[in-house]
Amino acid sequence: GTVKGTELHDAKTAIGGTTARNVDLKEVTGQDFLRTATIMLIGIAIVLIVITRSLLNTIFIIGSLLLAYFASLGISEQISAHVLHVESLSWNVPFFSFIMIVALGVDYSI
């Protein structure tokens, strides 16, 4: 870095502020999202297999939930970009959208 060759060559450098905090928050929530989504889908699949007694129906329901999630996320992105003129969705929109769509969608899919 820029401190190499100076008296501060052993010093630790860090970046702070709102932008750095938001980047860190996005990275952490991205990891949490994958973990949460995996646990939710596995748990829902197990319950659906028990309730429907059909692996094919379970795959169809999980697939339709994922399709609904990605479609709604794409539509939300398009609306925010072209109607609201916002560069991207907030970090929490995909996370909470997944939870709400899957939780409500699985009830109506059965």
TrEMBL record:
GO terms for cellular component: plasma membrane. The keyword Transmembrane applies. Coiled coil: none annotated. Its main location: membrane. Keywords: Cell membrane, Membrane, Transmembrane, Transmembrane helix. It comes from Bacillus cereus. Residues 3-110 form the Membrane transport protein MMPL domain. This is MMPL family transporter. It is a multi-pass membrane protein. The chain crosses the membrane at residues 33-51, 58-76, 88-106. Belongs to the resistance-nodulation-cell division (RND) (TC 2.A.6) family. MmpL subfamily. It comes from the Bacteria. The keyword Transmembrane helix applies. It is found in: Cell membrane. Pfam families: MMPL. InterPro entries: MMPL_dom, Mycobact_MmpL.
